[in-house]
Amino acid sequence: MSLIDLRSDTVTRPTDAMRRAMAAAEVGDDVFGDDPTVIALEGRAADMLGKEAGLFVTSGTQGNLVAQLAHLARGQETIAPSESHMIVDEAAGHAVIVGTSIRGLRERPDGTLDPAEIADAFRDPSDPHEPITGLVSLENTHAHSMAQPLSVEYTATVAAIAHERGVPLHVDGARFFNAVVAQGVTARALAGPADSVTFCLSKGLGCPVGSIVVGSKDFIWRARRARKLVGGGLRQVGILAAAGLVALSDGPDGMIERLADDHANARRLAEGLAELDGIISAGGIAQPTPGRLDPTRVRTNFVLFKVRGDRAAFLERLKVRNILMVEYPHGAIRAATHHDVSAGDVTTIIRAASDVLHEMAGRTRLPVGA
């Protein structure tokens, strides 16, 4: 059986259309600002999200890092979700490189922060004991809540709180277009309230490398300097940017609308797993109600769940069957659907999970129809 890799949507392979575009890409030196394919991609991304300018970066982490460097002065503080990627999964870059602190607030099960708690988290700039709040950040989709999409209205509410206090809002939109598709809104509407947005090309959009940061011209100028500072200056990167132009295109090779297929496959997977004895709720903010896995929590491309018994053994037995998932915080397992996972694969995964659970329980799985 061929490998079915659900560890992350980062494992996607470039499509044939992307490979052709990469091979034929017109290139220049991006540090000198004369790579036409990069320029086209940055312009396309900025226009789609309704911002003045864009910047190609190597990863979502680098995108968040240069955004912080562009927005913040050393010693300032960001208000962000406590289980956000910026806090948990970016090697403390905010402290090591940006020289700032983060005030983490507890997320709710829908991936949002309480607006009243955001307002209360702003520091008193007149008190020399406290850092000065310089940024508010959200994550959309919010990974640890089972990749819940945040709405236009909620983003606008948070932006208003930040702007009233003279502070910008940054959105870590690693899976921004999953949120767009899941809610049936436009990218412009969802990005509109934010001062800057980072989104990944290399996750659900299927590109081999890269993310985009968008914002005002002044912000992107500062972000470009920050990218150089952290070693992100790129040369003939149009070869990679060409894949991004394919992904963001409106034609049949575009990768945005098809994200709905990933969401449908994730829901089907959750529905199948929920019927298996031994699969339970992921707990925490992923599914605060204990007991059976609730498939209605799956709104985008993440399925988070737990197994009764040895999690490592479950994953290892799936691996023997050429199915890969990954351990996730709080004792959970993550399965992420993407372009390289088909509806047929979902059926295979459910059957394999059932077999593994029967093995772990010491029971023999009866053949179908027996």
Can you put this structure into words, describing what you see?
The chain is α/β, with parallel strands linked by helices and 370 residues long. It has two domains: 12-247, Aspartate Aminotransferase, domain 2, CATH 3.40.640; 258-360, Aspartate Aminotransferase, domain 1, CATH 3.90.1150.10. It is 39% helix and 16% strand. The chain contains 14 helices and 13 strands. The protein has helices spanning 16-24, 36-49, 60-71, 85-88, 93-98, 115-121, 152-164, 176-183, 187-191, 217-229, 238-247, 259-274, 311-320, 343-360; strands spanning 4-5, 53-57, 77-81, 101-105, 133-139, 169-173, 196-200, 211-215, 279-281, 302-307, 323-324, 326-328, 332-336. The strands form three sheets. It has a seven-stranded mixed beta sheet with strand order 2-8-7-6-5-3-4, with helices on both faces. Strand 5, helix 7 and strand 6 form a beta-alpha-beta unit. Helix 2 packs parallel to helix 11 (238-247), helix 3 packs across helix 10 and helix 12 runs parallel beside helix 14 (343-360). The longest helix has 18 residues, at 343-360. The model is unreliable at 364-370 (pLDDT under 50).
